[in-house]
Each structure stands twice: as structure tokens, then as C-alpha cells.
């Protein structure tokens, strides 16, 4: 089943409200049948890989403590090198990506 979504959605089903305490009646004329599963879902290899990556990233720490310590030490020692050309280049790349 497919439907076109164009932003002009119109309700096709009408809902009726049920007052508290008034439950809709259930017909007991026919015996209850189990619901059969008609839909199935199969993940592609890419989706499975993305799920595994998401699980891995959710358990990884947000900050690399080793990298932070290395930068901290190089700042304290005065050995941290700043490359303004690399910084400017990356900023321009990011700007171009955001404009797409």
C-alpha cells in the first residue's frame, strides 16, 4: 500500500468519543480468532550493519579521555602545534557541506 503525502492531509476516518465508564460493546456472536501476521520485515545488510554500529556507539564513551589528556599535556608543555591553514580548510569544508 502506498499513499502520496503532499502536506494537505485530510482526515478520512471519523473518530467518536466514548464517555468515561461507557465501554463499547463487544459482539459475542462469532468466536474470537487469533490475529495472523500478514506483514514481515527483513533488514538489509546495510541496515544490520548500521544497527550494530549504533549499539557499539551507544556503549562507547562520548569523550576520548586519552586524547584529552594528550592534548592537555602538550598544551602545558608548550608543544601543541596549531595549524591555522588546516583549521580554515576544515571550516570551509563544513560550510560547503551545510549548504548542500
UniProtKB/TrEMBL annotation:
Identify the keywords attached in UniProt to this record, alphabetized.
Bacterial flagellum biogenesis, Cell projection, Cilium, Flagellum, Repressor, Transcription, Transcription regulation
Q: Which Pfam families match?
A: FlgM
Q: Does the keyword Phosphoprotein apply?
A: no
Q: Which residues form the Anti-sigma-28 factor FlgM C-terminal domain?
A: 39-93
Region (Disordered) residue ranges read 15-37
Entry's Gene Ontology BP terms: bacterial-type flagellum organization; negative regulation of DNA-templated transcription
Kindly list any coiled-coil regions of this protein: none
| Domain of life per record | Bacteria
Primary role:
Responsible for the coupling of flagellin expression to flagellar assembly by preventing expression of the flagellin genes when a component of the middle class of proteins is defective. It negatively regulates flagellar genes by inhibiting the activity of FliA by directly binding to FliA.
Identify its protein family.
Answer: Belongs to the FlgM family.
Indicate what this protein is called per its UniProt record.
Negative regulator of flagellin synthesis
Q: What does the record give as the organism's lineage?
A: Bacteria, Pseudomonadati, Pseudomonadota, Gammaproteobacteria, Lysobacterales
